[in-house]
Amino acid sequence: MYKRKIFFYSALVLTLTIITLLGTGSSLLTITLDKDHLIPYGTLTTWTGMISLPLTIYWGVKELRKPTKKLNRTLSYVLKIIVILGILWVPISYLLAGNLSFSFSEKETFQGGQLAMQWFWRLSYVIGIGAILTLIIYWISLIFKKKKG
Predict the structure, then answer these.
(1) Tens digit of pLDDT for each residue in 35-66?
(2) Membrane-spanning regions, if any (predicted)?
(3) Could you tell me the pTM of the whole model?
(4) Which DSSP category does 112 fall into?
(5) Would you call 140 helix, strand, or coil by DSSP?
(6) What domain range includes position 142?
(7) How far apart are CA 23 and CA 43, in angstroms?
(8) In angstroms, rounded to a whole number, what is the distance separating the alpha carbons of residues 75 and 77?
C-alpha cells in the first residue's frame, strides 16, 4: 500500500505540474534539450503528462487497478490501453510529424502534413480526454450503485 501511495502522489504531482506548465504556456517548454535545437523541453514535458495523467487515475482508484465488476474491468482495460498510448505518444507522433517538435506544414505528403496533424491531435485527445472520461464513467457508476443500495 505504501508503494501505491508513492506512485499515486508522484503521478499526481507530475500531472498537476505539467498541466500548469502547459496551461500557462511556460517559456520552459520552448527550451531545447539538444545542441541542434531539435528537441524542445515541451515534448518531454507533454509526453510525461500523457503518461502520468492515466497513471494517476490507475494508482488512485483501486477498482480500476483490481476490478471486481464487469464495467470496471472494461474501464480498467481502456485505461491500460490509454497508458500504453501515452507511452507510445512520442514514437507515434514522431512518425506523424517527422520531427520531435511535432510541427506540421501544408505538405502534400502524409508525414508532416495536415492529415498527419489531424491524427496527431486525435491521438493526443484520446489520451487526455479518454483518461478523464474513464474516471467520470467510473464516478457515475458509483452514483448509480449508491442509488440501488
Answers:
(1) 887 889 999 999 999 999 999 999 999 999 99
(2) 7-32, 38-61, 81-102, 122-144
(3) 0.91
(4) T
(5) helix
(6) 2-148
(7) 14
(8) 5
